Amino acid sequence: MNSEQQRRLWFIVGGIVFVTVIVLGRLVAFQVFQGQEWADKAIDEVLVVARPERGMIFDRNGAVLVANTADYQIGASPRLVSEKPQVATALAPILQTPRFEILSDLESDAPYVLLAQRVSEDVAEAVRSFDFDGIQLDPLPRRFYPQGDMMCHTLGYVDFDGNGTFGLEGYYQQELAGQAASATVNISPLAEQQGVIAREGADLVLTIDRTVQFTVERHLQRAMQEHGASGGVIIVMNPRTGAILAMAASPCFSPDRYYEVDEELLRSPIIGTLYEPGSVMKLVTMAAALDSGTVTPQTTYYDAGVIEVGGHKTYNWDRSAPGTVDMTTLLARSLNVGAATLATWMGPDTFYAYLQKFGFGRPTGIDLMGEARGLMPLPGDELWTESFLATNSYGQGLAVTPLQMITAVSALANDGYIMQPYIVAEIHTEEDVYTHQPSVISHPITAETARQVTAMAVTAVAREVPQAQVPGYTIAGKTGTAQIAENGIYLENDVIGSFIGWLPADNPEIIVLVKLDRPRSAPWGSLTAAPVFSDLVDELVVLLGIPPDNVRLRADLMAARQNGEP
Prior knowledge:
- The structure is a single chain.
- The chain is of the alpha+beta class.
- The protein has helices at residues 3-33, 35-41, 84-95, 99-106, 121-128, 152-155, 167-171, 173-177, 210-227, 263-266, 281-291, 327-332, 336-357, 388-391, 402-409, 447-464, 529-543, 549-562, and strands at residues 45-50, 57-58, 64-76, 113-119, 135-144, 157-158, 164-165, 181-186, 203-206, 231-237, 244-250, 300-303, 306-309, 312-315, 323-326, 418-419, 424-428, 433-435, 440-442, 476-486, 489-503, 510-517.
- The chain folds into two domains: 50-206, Penicillin-binding protein 2a (Domain 2), CATH 3.90.1310.10; 210-556, 3-Layer(aba) Sandwich (Beta-lactamase).
- It has 18 helices and 22 strands.
- The longest helix has 31 residues, at 3-33.
- The chain is elongated, with a radius of gyration of 35 Å.
- The relative contact order is 0.11.
């Protein structure tokens, strides 16, 4: 090896040593002196969020009432989109957006642009079929109501942020929504990977049968058309358990398009809107008078056609002066003077104590969001005057919801017990099934009083309301015709017609409330709400399997003979 080769060798060795020293120095600096700083900058962990799917809602037979679907958000990364003019041309008719707007977005310098906020799955599929580079489709959860606007006020709706509002969606928001889960997860391939599991939303099974509900809604719509009503409510309840079998209100709305509806229409007329009930309140007044011992069914009073209480004169609805009247006739002829007389005989302390026991002035506690309390001023309140003792007895001067009214009267059909009204029969979670157990919320009157008033109500229907009769069944019930007050003044030509009835009268299985707002065909509940009740119940007894009186009594007689009873 000559001197030139040796020199080159030492040069190469020197270079290798120099590079080695530099590399080792940097390694020492990174590992020892800057190790913690670089460790802090390393991205070995990410936040992982698992979002649950909202629970579904079913009718009592498993029919789907509420499910889940998705809309889509259409976005783009302009730098990744090639052939921008062609893409804008293709997307414009699909997104129903001017081509120049889309092209302007695609030529933007922004890293991401939003082309469509929320579109249907069909639109998203059409966009997806082009398979454009740089176009992004992100699913956005949305509720789906396969029955359309059926039960709109009962179901409520869910906004775009996933918050339930009104009805079941609002009341059971926590159960339906489930619980999202999040965790900071180490994504290093050397670390053990951890799963993140959300608590899925619970499913609800209702007391409502879709077929019964459809029938009720059909009859309500027909009634509104026939009688020219501006609105209406029908509720069907099992008085023995408090289970709601169907309830409908009109006008309705589409829950999946709630944002297109006036906010006032979103409030449930069943539980959120107050009205003066009118003469159906005489059932409660009579029950209070009998139960308190103020009167007996045979008690009479003299009806001169007018009574003055607290400076207010009360007249009978037909301006009659029938003279000596017993309690059954009072109820059958719906005499205002008679109801006011009973209230004055009881006195304010007893009368209002019973009204409170019947639940007036407070929510029923049904499992629906948006229930109103009702309005019932009491003696001593600023708004109460002595004349209310008379007017409240026949259902004016106080305000209730339709659900409050039917719940109160249900005591007459259930041996004096008021059951907690409810609409969810079961809650299905991932771990268990929770079943609703019927519960008593009040016992305002005795079973004997309930039977006495029911017998009077049977006579009242037979004598005065043949329009409410259902062939083969004994009906107990009462009509109501109430004036509508606006700004403290009763409107001259606008009324609310209603009818509450329960059957079979001797062993009730259902109680039904029909309420029609501002009917134009007739001014009396006997001519508007009562016929609707009759037509509806004629179908309900078949759907619910309620046998006619003669079939049921014959079966009871045969069962008694088999048991050796005389």
